[in-house]
Amino acid sequence: MQWCAKSSPSHRREVAVSSRVNAAGDTRERIRTAALALFAEHGVAATSLREVARSAGVAPGLVGHYFGSKDGLQEAVEDWVVGLFSETLGAVPLEGTVTEVVAARDSAVNGMFARNPHAVDYLRRVVVTPGAGDARLVRKILAEQVAQTEHLRDHGIGASQAPVTEQAVTVLVRQLGAWLLQPALGRLWALSGAQGPEPQVHVTLR
């Protein structure tokens, strides 16, 4: 004799709601991912919501449904990029010497950028050739880096006589500099007709 348990109506409703929530999250993420790639390639001003919807494979109305407006979509992309920094740095243990901790954090950021090329391209665009509204992302990243610097100082790491904002900017330039400049060097190298391997950019601040 076999016994088959039947789910209750309330359980079926919970499953249905959960499925809709997951589907909504997947759609929202797909739109945001498509927007990041297009913003990185063309810039925010040159990207329409219809193009984002087409790239994401969704109806144009869904972009407005999930993000409200183009500015809302841009802010969601910005928050995701800033979240990459926060999650990446937050996962690095504050153990070892100051030199070891700093090296581990820089290495983690490099790895994060290598895995997220569209985030790098978008950052390069807003920092090197900013458009209207692009300063917001830079301010958010700076605010995150200031918070990270204060966190390190609270743990006795990276103590400095410099104001925390100046120290945060120095760290950010060190972590971002090569990623921002390497493509420019690559173009110069290619245009020159040089035959040797392309030099690699290393940023040292004094």
UniProtKB/TrEMBL annotation:
Name the record gives this protein: TetR/AcrR family transcriptional regulator
Domain HTH tetR-type per the UniProt entry, residue ranges: 25-85
InterPro entries reported for this sequence: Homeodomain-like_sf, HTH-type_TetR-like_transc_reg, HTH_TetR
Domain of life: Bacteria
A Pfam family this chain is assigned to: TetR_N
Keyword Nucleotide-binding: no
Protein's organism: Janibacter limosus
Signal peptide: none
GO MF entry, a single one: transcription cis-regulatory region binding
